[in-house]
């Protein structure tokens, strides 16, 4: 049975009054013939063996505790408990038990509890007298300890003992006995006192805590808890609290009540976290009141500090004062870190007020100064504070940095300081960088940006981020994939260049983090990141990392490309085909050989996605340029499937064309080409102007993206017309990406007249190049021409073939562009 509602742990109480785990299984209630009654059965989830078979006895007292526990006594000294994974399952079984016993399921206990005879303590109605406590004397300590531990299993008796302890001022008397025992070195008595004080804590009563944690009592309570009978030597908790733990006042606290609260909270937290053993499954709620006690103390401390504006102003003044020495500043930052941590205990509306107070006092400018400091500890604490602020209100942080941008240089903007910290993290595992990357992602996530009536935070902030910060974020990526780095070690004729410094593990990890953030941008930022990728030719640079010896980095680069292709955006698709950007991916696949690993699967998934989604322009590009290299891969049908899709599309286009009279076809074809030629080039103008003359005059940038024709047919017709004209004057994009095109298998695509012509064109268009770069131009131009020339085959216009050849060989036709 896999139903988690019925999943339980079975416990039995051993002689030492400790619960033993008997195993985990699934519980059911069924009629058992042998036991002649409804019974609880638990079968082990591991092997189905029977962990428990217990008849629901009409007279047994079953107790439901903490919503997920059912406890009962099977025999005089045999206590059982079922701990349910889910409350619903506990309620279900509880109803069955109550049904058998004829009780209302709303009760917590099915029978009146009758305590054993020896104790002579009977359960009575609420008006019954309290528990009689033995007199507080040394020789009665054992009796007191037994009494305290025996009541813990009964909620009613716990209440009564708590009342008795409160009314008689019993705790203070016990603590006096502790001092006597310690002076006499009475170890047995001290062990009993440990049991007593621990038991009293487990009574879970706030009124008793008030007494135990008061200034006069708390150290003696800690003293009692040092003498755990299971330890050979007592612990030295009091010595730690009085001598080792130092209370640092960054600014003197004048309010004595506040000081007392801070001391008390620290000590009680110490008792809970250090002294008391980790609670078992049954004790978790025994200390719920202790947790609440600490919680409310923290709320009070935060509120009192927050109201004391003079104190906070002084802290801020010293934090930002250049004269403050480093040790003092470190203490101030740690104080704020703890202050923010305490604030998490506040209710939402109070937390709002808290962070607004900090913002008003200038927490963000202060953090900006502190995060840029050399001290690692200070920077780490400042990062934690920053994370609290970002978590609380990303909008508040965004608003601050945008205002700041109007007054200061890019270098000292808060977000750029954060990015610098991320890039310069000295930790080999980049722990801090990972945390900062998470915060940056929150800040640039459009999901948490507000759109108000008068302004949209999203467009404003993203404009700011891409103008002022993006170059800082991508700097390490661009530096490590720059052309000179890539060509320094590239071996001519080999598909793999032994490049890049990301062979250094720490740098590789950093680049992986940056790529993760950029991949997030591709998914969420649409046109901002699209402009950035196109203008910087970013994908080409990223794909250089496919050569890294660190597979995780190669996979990050591949994931970036996969996200771009996943958008199915025709602008991106044209950018990829025009730049021949599948080549590094296919190189990586072929270099990976027959190894069946994550890289292999990820590359194949990329091509499978293109096939399933039928992205026609990419299918055509892959098949025409790389099919020769890929057709040998037969352990998946992906590449054959791509070829089939390509051929089907080609046939479909041919049929379409054959059904149109030739005169109409050529006229329509010419007209569309002219109408759309400028749109075709729009996204690439800026790029080509940088590196050579633009093929067409620049067009206005404000054109809408949706001018691009969605119809595949129209797209391919335009492509055909444009390619036939472009053959004369290919864009001189020789080394923008710094990736050497040496893919041996693409030669087939550039065979024949096409290849020969393009080489001669390359020679004409780059007479000024020197130092062997002309051969590189030729190689690149061949590859680009091969890609372009091959695309023509997608739409086969029989009537225009002669035209094409004429245009390629006759430069005189070029002036048509101006007409």
Automatic annotation (TrEMBL):
Compositionally biased tracts (Low complexity): 746-775
Region (Disordered): 681-819
Biased composition, class Acidic residues, residue ranges: 681-693, 797-808
Annotated PP4R3 EVH1-like domain residues: 5-101
UniProt biased composition (Basic and acidic residues): 700-731
Cellular compartments per GO CC: nucleus
Ranges where the Serine/threonine-protein phosphatase 4 regulatory subunit 3-like central domain occurs: 143-648
InterPro entries the record matches: ARM-type_fold, EVH1_PP4R3, P4R3-like_central_dom, PH-like_dom_sf, PP4R3-like
Family under the similarity heading: Belongs to the SMEK family.
Protein name per its UniProtKB record: Serine/threonine-protein phosphatase 4 regulatory subunit 3B
């Amino acid at each position: 049975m896999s139903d988690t509602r019925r999943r339980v742990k079975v416990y039995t109480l051993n002689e030492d009054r400790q619960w033993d785990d008997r195993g985990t299984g699934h519980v059911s209630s069924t009629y058992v013939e042998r036991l002649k009654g409804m019974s609880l059965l638990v079968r082990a989830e591991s092997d189905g063996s029977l962990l428990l078979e217990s008849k629901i006895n009409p007279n047994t007292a079953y107790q439901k505790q903490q919503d997920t526990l059912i406890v009962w006594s099977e025999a005089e000294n045999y206590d059982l408990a079922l701990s349910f994974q889910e409350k619903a399952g506990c309620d279900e079984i509880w109803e069955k038990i109550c049904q058998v016993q004829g009780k209302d399921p709303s009760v917590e206990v099915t029978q009146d509890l009758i305590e054993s005879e020896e104790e002579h303590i009977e359960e009575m109605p609420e008006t019954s007298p309290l528990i009689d406590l033995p007199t507080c004397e040394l020789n009665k300590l054992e009796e007191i300890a037994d009494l305290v531990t025996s009541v813990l299993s009964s909620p009613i008796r716990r209440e009564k003992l708590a009342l008795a302890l409160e009314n008689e001022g019993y705790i203070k008397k016990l603590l006096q006995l502790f001092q006597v025992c310690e002076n006499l070195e009475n170890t047995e008595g001290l062990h009993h006192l440990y049991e007593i004080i621990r038991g009293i804590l487990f009574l879970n009563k706030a009124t008793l805590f008030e007494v135990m944690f008061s200034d006069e009592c708390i150290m003696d309570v800690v003293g009692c808890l040092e003498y755990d009978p299971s330890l050979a030597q007592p612990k030295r908790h009091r010595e730690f609290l009085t001598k080792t733990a130092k209370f640092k006042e960054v600014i003197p606290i004048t309010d004595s009540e506040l000081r007392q609260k801070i001391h008390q909270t620290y000590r009680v937290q110490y008792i809970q976290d250090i002294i008391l053993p980790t609670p078992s499954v049954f004790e978790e709620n025994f200390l719920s009141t202790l947790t609440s006690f600490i919680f409310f103390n923290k709320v009070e401390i935060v509120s009192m500090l927050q109201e004391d504006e003079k104190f906070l102003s002084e802290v801020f003044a010293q934090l930002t004062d250049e004269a403050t020495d480093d040790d003092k500043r470190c203490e101030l930052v740690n104080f704020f870190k703890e202050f923010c941590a305490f604030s998490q205990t506040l209710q939402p509306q109070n937390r709002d007020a808290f962070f607004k107070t900090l913002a008003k006092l200038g927490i963000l400018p202060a953090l900006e100064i502190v995060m840029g400091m050399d001290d690692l500890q200070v920077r780490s604490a400042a990062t934690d504070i920053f994370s609290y602020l970002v978590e609380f209100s990303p909008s508040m942080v965004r608003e601050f940095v945008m205002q700041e941008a109007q007054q200061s240089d890019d270098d000292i903007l808060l977000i750029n300081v954060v990015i610098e910290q991320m890039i310069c993290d000295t930790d080999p595992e980049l722990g801090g960088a990972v945390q900062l990357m998470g915060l940056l992602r929150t800040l640039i996530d459009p999901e948490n940006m507000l759109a108000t009536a008068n302004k949209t935070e999203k467009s404003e902030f993203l404009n700011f981020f891409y103008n002022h910060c993006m170059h800082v974020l991508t700097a390490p990526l661009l530096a490590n994939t720059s052309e000179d780095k890539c060509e320094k070690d590239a071996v001519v004729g080999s598909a793999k260049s032994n490049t890049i410094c990301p062979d250094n593990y720490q740098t590789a990890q950093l680049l992986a983090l940056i790529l993760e953030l950029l991949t997030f941008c591709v998914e969420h930022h649409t046109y901002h990141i699209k402009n950035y990728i196109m203008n910087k030719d970013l994908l080409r640079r990223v794909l250089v990392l496919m050569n890294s010896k660190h597979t995780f980095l190669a996979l990050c680069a591949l994931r970036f490309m996969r996200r771009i292709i996943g958008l199915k955006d025709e602008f991106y698709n044209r950018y990829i085909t025009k730049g021949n950007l599948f080549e590094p991916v296919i190189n990586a696949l072929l270099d990976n050989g027959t190894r069946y690993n994550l890289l292999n699967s990820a590359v194949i998934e990329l091509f499978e996605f293109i096939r399933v989604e039928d992205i026609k322009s990419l299918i055509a590009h892959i098949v025409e340029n790389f099919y020769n290299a890929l057709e040998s891969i037969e352990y998946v049908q992906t590449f054959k499937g791509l070829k089939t899709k390509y051929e089907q599309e080609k046939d479909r286009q041919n049929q379409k064309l054959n059904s149109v009279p030739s005169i109409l076809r050529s006229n329509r074809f010419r007209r569309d080409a002219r109408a759309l030629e400028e749109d075709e080039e729009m996204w690439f103008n800026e790029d080509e102007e940088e590196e050579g003359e633009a093929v067409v005059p620049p067009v206005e940038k404000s054109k809408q993206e949706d001018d691009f024709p969605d119809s595949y047919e129209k797209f391919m017709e335009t492509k055909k017309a444009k390619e036939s004209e472009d053959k004369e004057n290919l864009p001189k994009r020789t080394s923008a990406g710094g990736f050497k095109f040496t893919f041996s298998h693409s030669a087939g695509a550039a065979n024949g007249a096409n290849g020969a012509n393009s080489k001669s064109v390359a020679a004409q268009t780059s007479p000024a190049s020197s130092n062997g770069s002309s051969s590189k131009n030729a190689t690149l131009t061949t590859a680009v021409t091969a890609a372009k020339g091959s695309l023509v085959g997608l739409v086969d216009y029989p009537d225009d073939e002669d035209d094409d050849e004429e245009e390629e060989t006759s430069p005189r036709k070029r002036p048509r562009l101006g007409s």
